[in-house]
Design goal:
Layout (H helix, E strand, L loop, with lengths): L8 H5 L4 H4 L1 H4 L5 E2 L12 H19 L9 H13 L9 E4 L1 H13 L4 E7 L3 H9 L3 E8 L2 E2 L1 H13 L3 E7 L13 H14 L2 E5 L24 E6 L11 E4 L2 H15 L4 H12 L4 H25 L5 E2 L7 E5 L6 H10 L2 E2 L1 E2 L12 E5 L5 H14 L1
Parallel strand pairs: 1-12, 3-4, 3-6, 6-7, 7-8
Antiparallel strand pairs: 2-9, 4-5, 8-9, 10-11, 11-14, 13-14
Helix pairs in contact: 4-11, 6-7, 6-10, 12-14
This protein binds pyridoxal-5'-phosphate.
Pyridoxal-5'-phosphate binds next to α6 and α7.
Length: 395
């Protein structure tokens, strides 16, 4: 049977995630892995979640095992209004909706905002899940370079002017301002304000994806871009994945109510609602202070691992290597001498018992093949030091 004739354009646009293709290689037993960009399972509150979930099913089963509101658990939404206020964002319940992870939020927003012919600007490098979602809705991703303090604003201006001169519709900037995945870079305060002013001048929306902002080490990152937004130009995405557990698939979007209402319609046709049980567990975790009450431990946990990786790089990295020095999050970005292709190094690294993710797949264009992403979340500080020494020998 020939299926292609039945497929829509999406079948063409959707490409396999190159990181997933590496999974078998980088997940070999015993390997020291800097590959997986996931929170450490050591940080999950297993016992508390076991107790909460069994109690919820026994005592509130009729509610939590049922369908629910597409917008999500109202108690959790109320908590998020407060939470956003603490981050400097004044919002109200009708401007928030819950999604099954930020990944679903990105997909729903991509479907709402990007269609074939639309140009979407993304950082170089950027989060693959985000750029793939935007690509799958038909958007054309165009990369904007970054420096130590985030996305290059002059490059945005010249790119937008150039694309518009060519007759392209440029609508959207996708940015991860805090401890970016994959680079670890944080957008400076000045640039946040300037980016918003530029978006206003060029009439663009900003998609602000912020799953890592709470995972700072010593000082909080600058307030969200959304906190300076007086025009309703910024759509903010937050997530419980990195501060609680990604298995509960609970995240949120903050946007003007007109946008939220449209996203709600798209979500309704997608899954009717996110898991009521997951949301109820998260709401109960919030009530028991399992997020804010544990967050300083979590920050310390990742800071120690990051520090171990930075010290080992300092000690062992060959001359000509550069790397970012994140102040939060889960990732360090490394660039080797320009002639080295990190994709070609991966199999030797795995043979030596260390895994990383080559940098090229994170670029929507102009890939730097000498780059790589190191996640410091999974391994102990001791194994990080051993792994980096081994890796640097291969470099
Ligand atoms: C930048 C970024 N955005 C969104 C996500 C998706 O997170 P979730 O769907 O678990 O909320 C991730 C996951 O790693 C991420 O790194």
């Amino acid at each position: 049977m020939e299926y292609v004739k039945f497929f829509s354009n999406v079948a063409d646009w959707a490409k396999p995630n190159p990181i997933r293709r590496l999974t078998a290689l980088i997940n070999r037993p015993g390997i020291i892995s800097f590959a997986g960009g996931v929170p450490s399972p050591e940080t999950f509150p297993y016992e508390q979640i076991a107790e909460i979930s069994s109690r919820l099913v026994r005592e509130k089963g009729a509610e939590v095992l049922q369908y629910g509101l597409t917008r999500g658990n109202p108690k959790l939404i109320e908590y998020l209004v407060n939470q956003m206020q603490k981050r400097g964002v004044q919002t109200k319940t009708e401007e928030i909706m819950l999604t099954s992870g930020s990944q679903q939020g990105l997909d729903l927003l991509a479907r709402l905002l990007a269609e074939p012919g639309d140009v979407v600007l993304a950082e170089l490098p950027s989060y693959i899940g985000g750029t793939f979602a935007l690509n799958n809705s038909g958007g054309t991703l165009t990369g904007i370079s970054m420096s130590e303090d985030g996305i290059d604003l002059d490059a945005i201006r010249s790119k937008v002017i150039k694309m518009r001169d060519l007759g392209c519709q440029v609508k959207l900037i996708y940015t991860i301002p805090n401890f970016q995945n994959p680079s670890g870079i944080t957008l400076s305060l000045e640039k946040r304000k300037a980016l918003l002013a530029l978006a206003s001048e060029l009439d663009l929306l900003i998609l602000e994806d912020d799953p890592y902002g709470e995972l700072y080490f010593n000082t909080p990152p600058p307030p969200p871009i959304k906190s300076f937004d007086t025009e309703g130009r910024v759509i903010y995405l937050g997530s419980f994945s990195k501060v609680l557990t990604p298995g509960l698939r609970t995240a949120w979007i903050v946007a003007p109510s007109e946008i939220i209402s449209k996203v709600e319609l798209i979500k309704e046709a997608t899954d009717l609602c996110s898991s009521m049980l997951d949301q109820a567990i998260v709401a109960e975790c919030v009530r028991q202070d399992l997020i804010e009450g544990r967050i300083s431990k979590l920050r310390e946990f990742y800071q120690i691992r990051c520090q171990s990786m930075l010290s080992a790089l300092e000690k062992f990295a060959p001359k000509g290597t550069s790397w970012t020095r994140p102040t939060g999050g889960l990732f360090i970005w490394v660039e080797l001498a320009s002639q080295i292709d990190t994709t070609e190094l991966l199999s030797s690294a795995v043979e030596q018992g260390v895994a990383f993710i080559p940098g090229a797949p994170f670029y929507v264009n102009d890939a730097k093949t000498n780059s790589l992403r190191l996640a410091f979340s999974k391994e102990t500080p001791e194994r990080i030091a051993i792994g980096i020494e081994k890796l640097c020998k291969i470099f």
